Amino acid sequence: MELFFQQVLAGLATGAIYACVALAVVMIYQAIDHLNFAQGEMAMFSTFIAWQLLQWGMPYWFAFFATIGISFIAGILIERIVFKPLDGAPVLSHVVGFIALFAIINSLAGWIWDYNVKSFPSPFGTGPFMGMPIISSHAAGMIGVTLILLILLFLFFRYTRIGLAMRAAAANPDSARLVGVRVSWMIALGWGMAAAIGAVAGIMIAPIVFLEPQMMLSILLYGFAGAVVGGLTSPGGAVLGGFMVGIIENLAGTFLGNLGRELKLTIALALIIAVLTIRPSGLFGQRITTRV
């Protein structure tokens, strides 16, 4: 039983990262109706920025918040420069744009910082959390940081004018324009926030997977799994989906032996297919109907 609880807590820790990535994916999807295949690379590049700031002697939490700010601005610039001109373009144009962005960011990170694996420090330490061997201090810290982030986002979207405007722009752009909401800039802010959330995910997971240009590839797939399972039209569902994928992945890796450890990603992808077969809009997503 102790092993079961240990793996559930470990799943919550990794699921917290998947939840952040899933939330970032859903935010951009709701803004432009496309999946951002470069979301993981944006998070990876942000993590390299944080690592570089730490190498220059900056305190951890100062580098943490500075990276979030830089990522937020970078996300807005990417939307303004790359994807705003693609507004109204065919779906394939967006797909090619995301793939190109993926390749550019990956190559740029390798060119600047090389492809060698680098260690990334943890502000929480690596020992047991409060002396309890059931969960490590860093895993508990990841869960705590993610919960704080999610609470702040909930308060922002629920009680601030900008947050309400962003929700309106995502739900019904035409009606939002009629009441004076600048939908184009709300989309840009969504990109900035998605990039900032991805930066948090990258910084938190880097001490576990280590830092290198390919570090976020599998994590992005798990994030996609969480977003699809929870529902691409439901940010809260995407978060819950990310936690679910993390728990299922850890339990499978522990109780299915070598098969579970070797097929973790396959299990996540099979989970996507199973959910979509039963409920195409995801567990918490809304079915979208169009009148023709």
TrEMBL record:
Membrane-spanning parts: 6-28, 60-79, 91-113, 133-157, 185-209, 265-285
A Pfam family the protein falls into: BPD_transp_2
Cellular-component GO terms for this entry: plasma membrane
Molecular function terms, GO-annotated: transmembrane transporter activity
Keywords noted in UniProt: Amino-acid transport, Cell membrane, Membrane, Transmembrane, Transmembrane helix, Transport
Predominant location: membrane
One GO process term, biological-process aspect: amino acid transport
Cellular compartment(s): Cell membrane
Its membrane topology: Multi-pass membrane protein
Record carries keyword Repressor: no
Family: Belongs to the binding-protein-dependent transport system permease family. LivHM subfamily.
PANTHER family reported for this sequence: ABC TRANSPORTER PERMEASE PROTEIN (PTHR11795:SF451), BRANCHED-CHAIN AMINO ACID TRANSPORT SYSTEM PERMEASE PROTEIN LIVH (PTHR11795)
UniProt name for this protein: High-affinity branched-chain amino acid transport system permease protein LivH
Organism: Variibacter gotjawalensis
